[in-house]
Structure formats: structure tokens, C-alpha cells
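tool_call: predict_structure(chain=1)
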Amino acid sequence: MTAKSQTLKFENKPRIIAGMSVVGRKEGDGPLGKYFDEIDDDPKMGKGSFEKGESAMFATAVAGAAKKAGLRPFDFDALFAGDLLNQLISSNYAARELPVSYFGLYSACSTMTEALSLGAAMINAGYYRTAACVTGSHFAAAERQYRYPLEYGCQRPPYAQWTVTGAGCSVLSIKGDGPYISSATIGRVADYGVTDANNMGAAMAPAAFETLLAVLDDTGLSIEDFDAVFTGDLGRLGARILRDLSAERGVCLGQKYSDCGEMIFSREQNCYSGGSGAGCSACVLNSFILDKMRKREYNKVLLMATGALMSPTTSFQGESIPAISHGIILEND
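tool_result:
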């Protein structure tokens, strides 16, 4: 890492040896439904509330990923986890059942790539042998925390997004099979003055753009070097803004670029501008992207999850929305 570089390069090839995705019925009915490991028809996952159901999704994702990796959940050296709810309650309450070291993380909807960046750094440095990286979100829980009571039935603008109900877990290891994380680019907070809490795509797109430029500058790579480039949850509007910002700087994203928020729901599902939430990129990574990499349809992928760092407090006070994006590069041998 050079003096002003935002990118950490990992020489010891921390690998994603297993991934698990758990989603709700709406996500399962979307275009990526066949890739998800588990689709649950009960939004409360058999629990007493949406928040408890979200925590149950976390536990299911961790247990499923561990089983795929031939491990038990308490075999992990550490758990890197985060969600969107106040005080990270979904992550915290799932973690209390696991006697492993726990990092509670918050980077809004970009938390999955933050977790993978930190987990990969710890494994690359030799501190840990295995780690679980998991994030998730829940439509109903996020709505009543950030916006309105569910019973209110407010009308949304067309650029709004639909919080994904889902959790995704990646198992990182210094040994084993699977794509490895060759580098992680740690984002910087960007704020371009967007104040509309519904317009997260516009708030997050500049952060994704700045991280994209940092990836290309720090690594010396170009878009042509990747088989695919993904953002986390910009939605249709945010993805279009990112394309425009990139084109102004001479970077053509072309057909290699997709946004997880655009991918996870179809237009016919009436999810406005697409999906959002910490579970969005986590579920797409641990299903669709890993599947494509295992089949060698992709051999080099850039994933930049994106997050709007707002809260009800700042929104009610008329504050603008800071945003961040962390990027990782995944490669096959």
C-alpha cells in the first residue's frame, strides 16, 4: 500500500471457500431466484417479529455457509457482521449464539465488502485462519426504522428502492478452493448534497464513482481487465448516474457492469428503482457471482458495495446524505 493508496493488496490469497444466501419470497420470485440457497415464505422466519426474523436469517446464513465449508459455526476464528438496524441488533443477537471473536460493523449497504476487506486483511496477515463475513437486511424492519410504519401505506417516488429481505455469508480461509480476494479498496465518504432519503441511488453513485477511480488508479487495471463489474445497490437511477460520471472521465463501463439492486428484482415486481439494503450485494455475491466464478464464466470480478450513511435523526434535521463504497477484487487461480 503506497502513501496515498486506498487499496490493500493481499499476497497470501484469502479465499472464499463457501457462500450461503437466505432470502424472502419476493427475492426468491425475482430473476436470481434459482441461485439462492434458501427461500423462506415466512417474513418472520418463525419468530415473533421482523427484527427477530432478520437475526434468524443471519444465523441460518452462517450455519449454512459453515456446513458448505465442512466446518461448524464455532470453528471460525472470527465473525465480521453488520446490518441496518440501530445498534446492529440483528448481528449482535445472532453473534451471541457463537463463541467466536466478533466484529460488529456498520457501513450501511456497503457493509458486506467492508466485512470482506477486514476479514481478508486479518487472514492475509496471519492472525486468523478462517472467518465468516455476513450481512443482511429486512424490508419490514428497515421501513419502520428509517421511513414510515408499515400500516401507513405511503406512496413512494419512482426513484425509491425496495430493501432486500435476505442475508449472505462468505467463509474466508487461508486454505481451500474458491476465488481469492486479491485486493480491497477502502472507500472514502462522499457527500454531493442529496437530501431526499428516498433517493439513495443518487446519493451513493458518486461514492461508487470515486471508489472505481481509486481501484483503477491504485491497481493500474482497466475495465477491460475484468470479466464483470458490480455495484451493490445503486438501483436503476444510481447505476445510470454512475455510467454517466464514468463516461465523463473516459471510463466506459459497457456491458461488463451490473448493479445488484437492478438484478435482484424484475420491473414487473414493482420495486421502483430496484433493490437496496445490506443484504442485497451479500445475497447476490454468495449466490450468482460465486456460482459464475466456480463455473469459470467469470475469472476476475470487481464488486463495489455502496452505502447511504443516513439515519432518521439526520433526515429529520434536513442533513444531506453522506455515502461510501468499498471495493474488492475477486480472482480465480
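agent: The domain at 180-331 is CATH 3.40.47.40 (Peroxisomal Thiolase; Chain A, domain 1). Proceeding to next step.
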